[in-house]
Design brief:
37% strand, three-stranded antiparallel sheet
Length: 219
């Protein structure tokens, strides 16, 4: 009987697991682990082993236990760490208090924040009463000149600031409110209306990254 040896790298420590093909689909297991971000495979070897039948139950039981501990413990995904009790999230539509902000900026930012969390975490989006909730207000949308250096063309700066509230309904100790601010410079001679959308996209991405890191890397 064939016995398979799975060589894993777990937090930079090597783990060798043995079990036979009757218990698991190796391609499915490998694909699931790679997509989770937990484990990278260094090699998957197939060996002949005369003790396969005797060791089958022991190693298979250990493997079940191992992965049960992994997926019921604190889940990591692309550098994030989220307790197992947190399963869903809600993003309320952001408000606007910056008088000169584009009217649709709050909806755009809300949608992009949702997309980021859905794409880079295991959390499920719900319309209301998520385990964690995001809400906030766009407090600044300003354009200001930047003093040029000798030999350089004049530039202007678009700056966007947002006050964000984070509520963890599973543990209020994790709640926070913080202002996030980012800016992007551009040549003053440019037609602002033609580059505004692109500038907003760059700034939104930076602020959303800051919010995501604050929310999901401080557990």
């Amino acid at each position: 009987m064939n016995l398979y040896r799975l060589h894993l790298l777990w937090n930079d420590e090597e783990i060798n697991l043995h079990y036979d093909s009757l218990f698991f689909s190796f391609s499915a297991l490998q694909k699931a682990l790679r997509s989770s971000g937990y484990v990278r495979f260094s090699r998957l070897e197939k060996e002949k082993n005369s003790f396969a039948q005797k060791s089958k139950f022991i190693f298979s039981s250990f493997l079940y236990l191992f992965f049960a501990l992994v997926f019921t413990g604190c889940y990591s995904f692309k550098g994030t760490s989220i307790p197992p009790g947190v399963q869903t999230f809600t993003v309320e539509k952001f408000d606007i208090r910056a008088s000169n902000s584009p009217a649709a900026l709050n909806q755009r930012f809300t949608d992009e924040l949702k997309d980021k969390i859905q794409r880079e975490s295991r959390l499920n989006l719900v319309n209301a009463d998520g385990d964690i909730e995001f809400s906030g207000t766009i407090t600044e949308y300003s354009i200001s000149p930047i003093a040029p250096r000798p030999g350089e063309e004049a530039e202007s700066r678009l700056q966007i600031s947002m006050s964000v509230e984070y509520v963890d309904l599973t543990d209020k100790e994790n709640n926070w409110t913080q202002t996030f601010s980012r800016y992007e410079d551009y040549p003053t001679t440019s037609d602002f209306t033609s580059i505004e959308d692109n500038l907003i996209g760059i700034i939104n991405e930076q602020i959303i990254e800051d919010i995501f890191n604050k929310a999901f890397t401080n557990w």
